Fold this sequence. Notes:
Elements: H1 2-15, E1 26-31, H2 39-51, E2 56-61, H3 68-87, E3 90-93, H4 98-102, E4 110-113, H5 134-142, E5 151-153, H6 157-167, E6 174-175, H7 180-186, H8 193-199, E7 206-210, H9 221-226, E8 233-237, E9 252-254, H10 260-263, E10 269-272, H11 277-283, E11 287-291, H12 295-301, H13 308-311, E12 316-317, H14 320-329, H15 334-344, H16 352-364
Parallel strand pairs: 1-2, 1-3, 3-4, 4-5, 5-6, 7-8, 7-10, 8-9, 10-11, 11-12
Helix pairs in contact: 2-16
Amino acid sequence: MFLIDIFKLLLNILYFPFKFLKKQKKILFLSRQSNQISLEYKMLIEDLKKKDSSIKIKVITKKIEKNIISLISNFFLLFKQMYHLATSKIVVTDGYSVPISILKHDKDLIIVQMWHANGIIKKIGLQTLDKRSNKDKKVALKMNMHQNYDYVISSSKKTSLVFSKAFNVKLNRILNYGTPMLDYIYYKKNDKANEIKKKYHLNDKKIIVYLPTYRKNKVDYKNIINNIDFNKFQLVIKSHPVDGEKIDINNVTVIEDYIAEDIISIADYVISDYSNIVFESLLSYKKTFCYIYDYDIYRKEFGFNIDLKKEFSEFSFSKFSDIMKEIENNNYDFKKAQKFLDKYIENFDGHATDRITRFFLKILG
């Protein structure tokens, strides 16, 4: 822990001279979720430029990988981040960011957390501390995990309650605006069905799309395959980006070069588990199920904000064979699914991006 204290002190000493630089009419977008700019960031930037072309935009996206080269490159990237943090008026992040949480910023820098999901089924951020070992918990607290946020973007009152605990932010600082991804689906920009079907040579059989969330253990693909009649259905899988698991299974189409929200457009049925993609699928009016075969294990390892067994019970099953029975019966009750959806997604009106960018413009003056 002493080394962490030294690391934090060193970073703040290095950061201090940057704070004498002049603030610019600039917004910094930071992310460690991917090495590419996210769709939601692109949507915000495009709308900002339309409204005020004088705003400077800087995007820094760099995924931290578990190898020495990545760690070294990310360390040197800190200096670039420091410069832009010191000279920006607003910084937006979509996950945990070391420089945002550790550095002592000027009071006039507004830090906005726009978490990379709508509706929060599993626990996140500070909620996960009780699931960690004592050592990991102490490290997280020492690293100021999820500190310094001025505002958080949310999609509902229920989600705001989660964010308040996960990020230690007061409810009056959580903005129930919805996210750009909701607009993307609202205007059906995720409808890439013809394009994807053509590229992957998908036929006229009904398509089941399986979109599992991240888990420490491998996904139960074998049981899924054994319960699908491939004379009637075709199976499409996209693994979770963090998993990095290579999937090579006969009769299965694996798609990795499209985001999950786009892949949904080809589906007759979407099956996930504890992933928040469930909400995007329902918003796209897809027959959506949750395959929760490892429910008790996952609850112990990660914890839940939403009890799918209670709140989404008609569509959540521990046996894949039961999901297939429901699909075969073809009696999907969208009214019940809609009640669940409305509870966690309140602002599905196509104006989330506009609400966020107008808020940014108000700050910039």
